[in-house]
C-alpha cells in the first residue's frame, strides 16, 4: 500500500543505522530551532515527520498537535497526524484527521488516498473505493492511488479489476518490483500464465532480491512444462531463500522439484 506523506524504504542494517543517526541529528537541529522560534508550525511539522520516521510516535503526535494548536487550518498537520494513527492502528482517529484535512483542502488527492487506505484497513471496502476514486478524480496522474486500488481489488479477489489498475499505475510511473509481483499474482488467478511470467520476470529484473517471485516463476514454468526454465528459477530461489524461515516450506518443495528434474 502507498501512503502519501511518509517516507519508507528497504535498507541494510548498516544503512538503517546510518539513516537513524542522520534523522536524530535532524531532530536535534529542529528541536534547537523550535527553542528559537516556538510559534512556527512548519518547524513542528518537520520535526513530527522525523519522529514518525524514527518510530517515536508519541513525540510525532505531540509535534503535529502543537502545529495544529498554532494553525488550526494547516491541512498537512492533520494529514501527517493521520499517518501516525495509521501506524498505531487507530483507524477511526486516522479517518477523522484525513477528513479534517480534506475539509481544508478538498481537492488534495493525497488526503483522499490516505483516507481510502484507512477505510481499506478497516475492511470498509466500498468507502475505500469511493475515496480512491475521489483521489483519481482530483488528480488522474496520482499514481499511488492506482496501486492502492489494485491492491484492494487483489485482496478482494477481483483479479480483472486489479490487473486494470496495476497496468494503469505502471503506465504512469513504470512500476516497481512489488507492483509487478502483485500483477503476476493477479494474472495467475486469471490463468494468464504467460502474462504472469512476464510480470514476475520484470519484477526480478528490477529487484533481484524479490525472492518469492523466483518461486512463483518455478510454478508458472511448471504449468508451461518448461523444465529448463524451471531449473533456472529453482536454483535461483534455493540460493536466495536458504536460511530464511518464512521460505522454509517453499525451499523444501523447490528441492523436491529439482530432484524430480534430476531423476528424469
Structure commentary:
The protein has 264 residues and is an all-alpha fold. Helix content is 78%, strand content 0%. The protein is built from 14 helices and no strands. The protein has helices spanning 13-36, 41-54, 57-70, 75-87, 91-104, 109-121, 125-138, 143-155, 159-173, 177-189, 193-206, 211-224, 227-241, 248-262. Helix 4 (75-87) packs antiparallel against helix 5 and helix 6 packs antiparallel against helix 7 (125-138).
What is this structure, in a nutshell?
The chain has helices at 13-36, 41-54, 57-70, 75-87, 91-104, 109-121, 125-138, 143-155, 159-173, 177-189, 193-206, 211-224, 227-241, 248-262. α6 runs antiparallel to α7 and α8 (143-155) packs antiparallel against α9. Helices cover 78% and strands 0% of the residues.
How many strands appear in the DSSP assignment?
0
Estimate the mean pLDDT confidence.
Answer: 90
The secondary-structure element order is HHHHHHHHHHHHHH
Which residue ranges are poorly predicted, with pLDDT under 50 across at least 5 consecutive positions? 6-10
Major beta sheet, specifics?
A: none
**Gyration radius, to the nearest Å?**
22 Å
Q: How many angstroms does the end-to-end distance come to? A: 43 Å
Fraction of residues in helix? over 70%
Shape: globular
What proportion strand?
Answer: under 5%
Structure annotation, total helices: 14
In terms of structural class, how would the helical and strand content be classed?
A: mainly alpha
